[in-house]
TrEMBL record:
This is Sirohydrochlorin cobaltochelatase. GO terms for biological process: cobalamin biosynthetic process. Pfam families: CbiX. GO terms for molecular function: lyase activity; metal ion binding. It comes from the Archaea. InterPro entries: CbiX-like, Sirohydro_Cobaltochel/CbiX. Coiled coil: none annotated. Gene3D superfamilies: 3.40.50.1400.
Length: 291
């Protein structure tokens, strides 16, 4: 029976950074679909470098809990797992279309199905919409609302913005929200000026980040004007420049993300059909599939 590894960044400074990873692993572990489910981190223990040695399975599916294709998913994780034959060209991706590549771990001999990051999977669009439903407490939210999908953005990696624009485009095509925009922290268009980009009086802001931390709980709320000091908190919705801002916090904390992790493994050949059904019933994903 194969094993599953969920590979995330982690943090030495933010103890809550790894919480979503452990919670999604627990959800999948309860399905019994894998011989073992392991969490692995770059900045915490257990580290990427040791995780394969903790598994008895000869076949392992590795799903990166990252937003975009880039330095960590194309260089750091494959290097630390010691994947023979690996090269980013194996994904044959345009920056958002990586599915998986099958390699061999040079030190353990295990067959590793190395999957694309969860952030660029098509099902992540559903998680963003679910996040909008959660923060507004309205399962039908859309008409009369604008939606901002927010990413970090960096001119050093064009794929960082591609993932955000990919999901904004997919959600816009559904015609559910009056307006959908992709906004960023470190490149234009910037989230600081969020109210300038929408005509709608109500704007849902969903950060495409894996965990809540410095950026989602301090930078973005202050940059948007939800509060002058993040330590005093903010209201939801908060009024900024005559508009109501519904700020959701990191999309990676949404329970439905466990569904996306399984979808990544399924695309790489894992037999997880029953597990997907179980997780969707638990997270409410079944309702989205029926839409």
């Amino acid at each position: 029976m194969p094993a599953l590894v969920i590979a995330a960044h982690g943090s030495h400074l933010n103890p809550d950074s790894s919480t979503p990873t452990f919670e999604h692993a627990d959800t999948i572990r309860e399905t019994g679909a894998f011989d073992a489910v392991r969490e692995a981190f770059w900045k915490e223990e257990p580290h990427f470098r040791e995780v394969l040695r903790t598994l008895d399975s000869d076949e392992v599916f590795v799903v990166p809990l990252f937003v975009s294709e880039g330095y960590f998913t194309e260089e750091v994780i494959p290097r630390e797992l010691r994947l023979e034959e690996w090269g980013p060209e194996l994904w044959d991706s345009d920056g958002t279309s990586a599915t998986h590549a099958t390699c061999t771990a040079s030190d353990t001999g295990q067959t590793v199905h190395y999957c694309g990051p969860v952030g660029t999977h098509r099902a992540m669009s559903d998680v963003i919409v679910r996040r909008a439903e959660s923060v507004t407490d309205d399962p039908d939210v859309g008409a009369g609302f604008g939606l901002a999908v927010v990413g970090h953005g960096t001119e050093r990696n064009e794929n960082s913005a591609k993932a955000i624009e990919y999901h904004a485009d997919r959600i816009r095509e559904r015609d559910r929200f009056d307006e959908v925009r992709a906004l960023f922290m470190d490149e234009d268009p910037e989230v600081d000026d969020v109210t300038d980009f929408f005509e709608s009086d109500d704007i849902v802001v969903v950060p495409l980040f894996i965990a809540d931390g410095y950026h989602t709980q301090e930078d973005i709320p202050e940059d948007m004007g939800l509060t002058e000091d993040y330590r005093t908190g903010w209201e939801t919705p908060a009024e900024v420049d005559g508009k109501r801002i519904w700020y959701s916090g990191a999309v990676g904390t949404e329970p439905l993300l466990a569904d996306v992790i399984l979808e990544r493994a399924a695309d790489a050949g894992a037999d997880v059909e029953d597990a997907l059904e179980m997780v969707r019933k638990r997270t409410g994903g079944a309702a989205l599939i029926e839409q």
